[in-house]
Amino acid sequence: MSAGRGLSVSAAILAAFFVCFSFSMSGCEKREKQDIKKVDLNAVEKTTAAPQEEKTIPIGISAMISPKESFHYYVDLTNYIGEKLGMPTRLVQRKTYREMNDLIEIGKVDVAFVCSGPYVDGQKKFGLELLVVPQVHGEVVYYSYIIVHKDSPMERLEDLEGKAFAFTDPNSNTGRMVPVYMLEKIGKSPETFFKKSIYTYSHDNSVNAVADKIVDGAAIDSLIYDYMREKHLGGVADTKVIVKSSAYGIPPVAVNPAVSPEFKEKIRAILLHMHEDEKGKEILRGILIERFVAADDANYETVRQMQDWLQDKAQKK
User: Fold this and answer.
1) What does the alpha-carbon distance between residue 190 and residue 127 come to, in Å, rounded to a whole number?
2) What's the rounded Cα separation, in Å, for the pair 211 and 200?
3) Whole-model pTM over 0.70
4) Is 181 helix (H, G, I), strand (E, B) or coil?
5) Is 170 in contact with 27 (CB distance < 8 Å)?
6) Rg of the chain over all Cα atoms, to the nearest angstrom
């Protein structure tokens, strides 16, 4: 096994994209030989302070939304926003989508790069607001890929019955909800369909779990998988895509609803014009984003419909 393919599941490392640009069980990672543990947020302390009153502007990102190799670009992006605002910023990183949504809700994070599923959850629960979305390859959509080892004879989702499978996060759109939806549509459930399943808490961890034959298959954010292909990262060369889902609204940049309209407009303008200067373009190139564009909440209606269908299905069981 190549040392260059080793990945950590540490919450201190960002696993290129948000968000879904990005992913009930426990798992282990062969590369680091660490147990994957769930994170308890019950101890998170709430605050009533307005986010914009903080000395620094907290900008959030979950660990799983991009490969760790792109971490420094998100640090640069956070600093870039601060320079344009004329105010200090700090990057707030968390391992799971739930943690990040909780921090936004209680006012600990102003702006965050989130997955599509958590955006829909946050919008419903506490009014999480769209700010902008990234444009990649001329599109503002992404897909869930079902991947297997390159030498595997499996060609369809149905071929994974009785096999080991990796999800990314319980709240991930492409990393869990979409494959569960695919299974339910054919009358199956993850609990009975797979021999076992694990959560890896990052898409690149899931790719490497398949490459190392820890699991037989995994559900992956297409943006992250394609990034890894282009950058020749991890064990992606030892995997192949056997299923590509329908298109879903791309993981957006979202904002805490409590911040002022003036602050939101400043951040939106900075991101929308980021591709127009050399420093901004360099950062965007590093995470394979062409530019940020205006967001349309209607793009996430298919995610809502899928969530509602799954919830209704679960209630009827």
Assistant:
1) 31
2) 14
3) yes
4) helix
5) no
6) 19
- Residue 83's CB is within 10 A of a number of other CB atoms, namely 13
Structure-model confidence comparison of residues 316 and 207, the more confident one:
207
Query: Under CATH, what is the fold of the domain 51-139+249-316?
Result: D-Maltodextrin-Binding Protein; domain 2 (3.40.190)
Output the six-digit token pair for 268: 């939106």
Mean pLDDT score across all residues of the chain: 84
Residue ranges per domain, the chain? 51-139+249-316, 142-248
- Contacts (Cβ under 8 Å, ≥6 apart) of 94: 11, 39, 60, 61, 62, 63, 100, 103
Task: Calculate mean pLDDT across residues 234-255.
Answer: 96
Q: Is there a shared CATH topology between the 51-139+249-316 domain and the 142-248 domain?
A: yes
Q: Which helix (H) or strand (E) holds 61?
A: strand 57-62
Strands (DSSP E) found in 104-182: 111-113, 129-135, 141-142, 144-149, 164-167
Neighbours of 138 (CB within 10 A): 6
- CATH class of the domain defined by 142-248: alpha beta
Mean pLDDT in residue range 265-292: 95
